[in-house]
Amino acid sequence: MAEETDRVGRGSVVPSDSKLILNVRLILGGYEACARFREMSKQTPKQEAKEEMAKAASFRPVGLSISSFFYLLSGIYYLAFPIVAADPTVWPLYVIGGASLLGSFGVFKMARWGLWLGLLLFPLQIVAPAFTLLTVLSYPGVWQQPIAIAFVASLFVLMFFASLTFLLVLDKRRSLN
């Protein structure tokens, strides 16, 4: 019995480590519980927090992947439209398209600047198609031409993508570095 206990102070008896482990094993229900207790006692709270942060940083949230893809598509759309329309006077679309591609890269890399660029692009990506939509719908007979209908539908899709990416990036902003 003297080997299993340590004397501390004036006659008080404190159980040794083996006695404590035996008590925990009996209370928690067997050797497996004792093994889990040993593993838990080896880790400090700081180690657990670091492990959780490493696990969280090792994967990309699905919302950010979707946002990056939508920024890429809208950037291509804004860059391709002036070329297809053969109208060099719509140079702001080149700026929005280039910024969308850059924002797509930033969100894909989960960088903080990608978040800010994506959030700053939202008003531009809503206002540009909205004004274009108002202009196109003012022309008479626009609903009889299949290409005009496809163009109007693409503007609605573009505004939907912009709204969705804004909400997804805003929701996952804590995941970005």
List the keywords.
177 residues; mainly alpha; two-stranded antiparallel ribbon; 7 helices; disordered N terminus
Would you write up a description of this structure?
By secondary structure, the protein is mostly helical. It is built from seven helices and two strands; from the N terminus they run ββααααααα. The protein has a two-stranded antiparallel ribbon. The longest helix is centred in the C-terminal third of the chain and has 26 residues, at 112-137. The two termini are 57 Å apart.
Summarize this structure briefly:
The chain has 177 residues and is mainly alpha-helical.
The residue-averaged pLDDT reads 77
| Helical percentage | over 70%
Give me the number of helical elements.
7
Order of helices and strands: EEHHHHHHH
Structural class: mainly alpha
Percentage of residues in strands: under 5%
* Sheet having the most strands: 2 strands, antiparallel
Query: Rg, please?
Result: 30 Å
> What are the segments in which pLDDT stays under 50 over at least 5 consecutive residues?
1-6
Q: Largest beta sheet: what is the strand line-up? A: 1-2
Q: Based on DSSP secondary structure assignment, what is the total number of beta strands? A: 2
Shape: elongated
What is the CA-CA span between the terminal residues? 57 Å
What are the SSEs and their pairings?
Layout: E1 5-8, E2 12-15, H1 17-28, H2 31-42, H3 45-57, H4 62-85, H5 91-108, H6 112-137, H7 146-171
Antiparallel strand pairs: 1-2
